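[STRUCTURE TOKENS]
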Amino acid sequence: MESLTGHLLVALPSLRDPNFERTVVFVLAHEADGALGVVLNRPTEALVGDILPGWESLLREPGVLFEGGPVGTDSAICVARARAGVAGFVGFSRVMGQIGTVDLSRDPARIGQRLECVRVYHGYAGWGAGQLEQEIEENAWLVFEALPSDPFRTQPEELWSLVLRRQGGMTAAVANFPPDVALN
């Protein structure tokens, strides 16, 4: 399977794991030994400025910490969009286009002018070698190309249905699947 780095994983209604039910995961890395991503549509109530002072001015609304996934919940990952024309800089690891991860140990005042916006996630979604591919084969996830705006939507709770609807056809109909229907 080709690398899914920079793609979206959209949980199908049959995926009932509470960590991933109705989630959209942005894949940050996908290699032979596994994959890593962050859940884009689970904002928390915690303000990033209370946890990481100085970063709040760079945040896209809502300015809260996001639940990135069930792994490494004591760690934080910053996904950012670099300004147009910024080729890269120390502390920025490109994922796709102008989107990448930023080293949160950097001084936001020094790198902020290079960034258009950021989102901060506690935890991440991780898969071992072959695990993600198996879950895709088992129809737990649909895979789509990410749009540059997807990781930074101002209404992230709507992302699951939005991504499904923009696919059209029968895939768009999945967005209307009731959340409280049990699948056997």
